[in-house]
């Protein structure tokens, strides 16, 4: 057989399909070329003795093309694996395994391309006629390379499936604690303090708080709050401020029905650190032990983040959920000093030392202004301290602005509190708290705060149910306060007494209980008894912040009974304590409240202005931090004292220094006062109607002023209805302290007069009688008003209704 024909036949028999002729047309073309006379030209359209498949093999095997195509394919594979990793919560080693397989595959693919290209070139040149049947080179073909890749990735997939099954079924060392039945879903854990083996004493508390914050992001288990732990220690007659060792934590867990204890430790290793975490069963047996390292101080927060994530993984939380959690550095701060200050603030807050807590949070924020959790805690601390609404709103507004840095639960809490306390959007606050409860039905803070919101909206049944559940899960002073206030508001005095007795058993020595005990008589109208109770509280608790609170409450209880000289002494003492605490805004606030009493109860406008001017001469407003300036109380006092011009000037300053959300909170109320002082009755009515619809302070707030505006407009029937809302208020703590102290007496007296003018003798007699009882021990200057009311009551005959 002629050599050309033999080559043609052998090409048809090539082992690799790419080396064979790819079509009959190519074979015909080659045969025609062979039939051309020697030295003649081949027929038009004839091709060289090389198949199109061989040409493609040569081109496809070029190293540059192989490298580019492999890189593109590798990027696609890694993208798919990354997507699956986050979508299905696959372990991190799947991605690492994929990278390893691709790294191993790359030289194999390059070598295969090189060999395949060499074979194709040999076929094209005719140097060899057949493909070698054996040897190492025979392993490097495209078909075998693709088959090997498929098998390698299949093995990785099967390994991943097996690992996932073992994890979910609790098999072997990768099985989770929940899957094994060693820990139940929604189990309650107690966090012990980190044992500190370093020379830096601040690291233990800081890392404890950081680990607590990060671990609290899980929804699979519930970490007992630091406040609940402190209260449990108090009931055990242990120092809540002392170290919570693993042994003591197990005692707390046994007492509180918790299932396990988390214990941590940090030790120095050269310039770096070794951190460890253990999960201990109630009997002390070790369920999990983990460790992480940090090269230096800057790596500690990241190491805590990794340690917490691994613990959450071993407990049984989905890897997808863990990866979706916010990094700890974003949730908290990159500053260890700020974290230390925050942890100290949390401890002070849990011990009800709100002044110290606020100071620590402020220092933490000074180091890191993006520390969202510190801003939120500062706002709550200021509420407990009775700070101005503006100062509180400023902190909560900062926290709200930074809320995207927080875990989902904290983010919803921050938004809900902002809606409730700053913008007064009760609907949005309720919706946010219900979302929190959808994530965690046992969130005590959400239960308690939602109870407060529903009580303000007069949905008392659900409010009490939520407050009771919150207190059942985690008894707190605030929870007892909520239940007592709701029960007193509904007139269920006996039940309120039972709740107070429970409060006494749970927190007998706490300031919150003693305050509730002192306030309790006010809820049934026994203001003189409440006053004696607060005197006892003042003798027992001597911290400056507590003393300021005592005198503020005594001033309110004195004012509501018409004991104005006594109230003035307490207000001045309140102002003096604020001076000692280096709080000029608080001092001016106390004086402004005193001035309001001068204007409203004494009808001494000139005296009210003198009190304000004396306070501002001592502390000019421009020397006080903008959010600490008590603009609201000053506007009210000036307007009530007949100086609406000064009130309007301060109102303009207030609005110029406040963001919209804060301005909108007080705006309608303050505009109503100014309009009332300017005798713009319809403007005042519109403003006060908007204020009472949005008030979050108490059920009666704004109705007395609305009554005054209606009377000024010549609408006595509407005024009477407004005053009735004030008279019907239950008179619990917020109502007395925030509003009734200057509005209840005048409302009762005007109700008597208006009812008498309408011929409603029984209602008039009842209102006069209540006024006489309320002001029976009022100052001599107010006794003529009491005498007039007593005469009117006697004139109308009979005794007032009980």
Report on this model:
It is a single chain. Helix 20 (444-456) packs parallel to helix 22 (477-489), helix 24 runs antiparallel to helix 25 and helix 30 runs parallel beside helix 32. The protein has 802 residues and is mainly alpha-helical. Among the domains are: 47-169, no CATH class; 178-327, Rossmann fold, CATH 3.40.50.10610. It is built from 38 helices and six strands. The longest helix is centred in the first third of the chain and has 34 residues, at 92-125. Strands 1, 2, 3, 4, 5 and 6 form a six-stranded mixed β-sheet that branches. It starts with a helix and ends in a 6-residue tail after the last helix. 68% of the residues lie in helices and 5% in strands.
Considering the chains and any ligands shown, give keywords for the structure.
single chain, 802 residues, mainly alpha, Rossmann fold, six-stranded mixed sheet, 38 helices, 6 strands
